[in-house]
Amino acid sequence: MVKENLYLSIIIASRNDAHGGNTLRRTQVSLRSLLQQLEEHRIESELILVDWNPPTDRPLLKEVLQWPNHLKYCTIRIIIVPPSIHQRYEYSGKIPMHRVVAINSGIRRSRGQFVLPGAIDLIYSNELISYIAARGLKEDECYRIDRCDVDRNIIQCDTLQEQLDYCRSNIIQINDQGPPAKREKLPYLHTNAAGDFQLMSRRNWHLLRGYREAQIIAAYGDGLFCYITYAVGLREVVLKEPLRLYHIDHSGKFTERSHGNGLPLENWLTLPFLPEHFNNLILRAYRILLTTFGYKLKGSVDGIPTLHFAEYRRIARDIVAGKHPYIFNDENWGLGQDTLEEYVISTAEWDKSYGRD
């Protein structure tokens, strides 16, 4: 149920392990700065942290993270997804977290007018938070932004101002929209690092039933969602400087772990005396020919099968052309059939008026 005063729900998911390195410190830096900004900009909001498959030999995230006292504008909710639910999924013994279902479960249980899924290690510029605080978001738009990766030593900064100053001076990569793809029948959308910032109305998240939950490694699910929102008529709005989203760099990134299988005889088709773009054209034509006759391109992350980039683009083209359904999940998306344990860490003043303490 949407609360009248609640404008924004922010969803993150994690567990108390060491994924990516310095996990708790990255999370703490991100949460502290975000909660301070939500208070300073007076955004009636809720932060939902989904603690997925908590390790049995470690305390819950709610117990190891430091939480501010007496927040006026932001309610903090912790949702616990037990190991018994995680074990339902294929490859659960190899991958400790189904991030997409975790995020979807938070989206499904959110109450804000607008919902922003994110990650545990993001820092938002004050200009970006101010933009949201102006309450000018529209129901028929989906908001995207470049993600700026910053040096991981930012976790040594203590105050919000120190963090923002460090971010501006230590960008190591900007995940921008890039140039339009040539000869590809797809709209020009900002799909790069989309999962870190896809701000949209809660109503539309529910109508579309969240991100695709089909695989425990959800490769390109955020990119597919960009094309889904386009297919249903939502306008993509790409926010520009000085609005910025910063991401704390870490090890074990998806791009470092994902692989795609090669094509049969692929090496024989790459001719050293031809320019690179000609070789790329030959390989692309060869790939189209093989897939037309049923050859399946396969992707993997940590040895676990997942969506191949070429298959992702094919599905996206079919969605845009109306040849593929744009809703992937059933009515139980986001663990809708399950009752999940929840803790309220802090209750905002607007929330107390509804009887939540």
SSE pattern: EHEHEHHEEHEEHEEHHEEHEHHEEHEH
Q: How is the biggest beta sheet arranged?
A: 6 strands, mixed
- Overall spatial form: globular
Distance between the termini: 18 Å
- Indicate the CATH class of the largest domain: Alpha Beta
Enumerate the strands of the largest sheet in spatial order, edge to edge or round the barrel: 9-4-1-2-3-15
Count the DSSP helices.
13
Q: Give me the CATH architecture of the largest domain, please.
A: Alpha-Beta Complex
Number of structural domains = 2
Task: Provide a concise account of the structure shown.
The protein is of the alpha/beta class and 357 residues long. It contains 13 helices and 15 strands.
Describe the structure.
There is one protein chain. The protein is α/β, with parallel strands linked by helices. It has 2 domains: 8-252 and 326-352, Alpha-Beta Complex (Spore Coat Polysaccharide Biosynthesis Protein SpsA, Chain A), CATH 3.90.550; 258-320, no CATH class. It has helices at 23-40, 61-64, 83-86, 99-108, 126-133, 160-169, 202-208, 221-231, 254-257, 266-269, 276-292, 309-320, 349-352; strands at residues 8-14, 45-52, 74-81, 114-117, 122-124, 141-145, 147-150, 171-175, 200-201, 235-239, 245-248, 258-260, 299-301, 304-306, 341-346. The strands form 4 sheets. Strands 9-4-1-2-3-15 form a 6-stranded mixed beta sheet. A 4-stranded mixed beta sheet has the order 5-11-7-8. Helix 2 links the parallel strand 2 (45-52) and strand 3. Helix 8 runs parallel beside helix 12. The mean pLDDT is 89.
List the helices and strands and how they pair.
Layout: E1 8-14, H1 23-40, E2 45-52, H2 61-64, E3 74-81, H3 83-86, H4 99-108, E4 114-117, E5 122-124, H5 126-133, E6 141-145, E7 147-150, H6 160-169, E8 171-175, E9 200-201, H7 202-208, H8 221-231, E10 235-239, E11 245-248, H9 254-257, E12 258-260, H10 266-269, H11 276-292, E13 299-301, E14 304-306, H12 309-320, E15 341-346, H13 349-352
Parallel strand pairs: 1-2, 1-4, 2-3, 6-10, 7-11
Antiparallel strand pairs: 3-15, 4-9, 5-11, 7-8, 12-13, 13-14
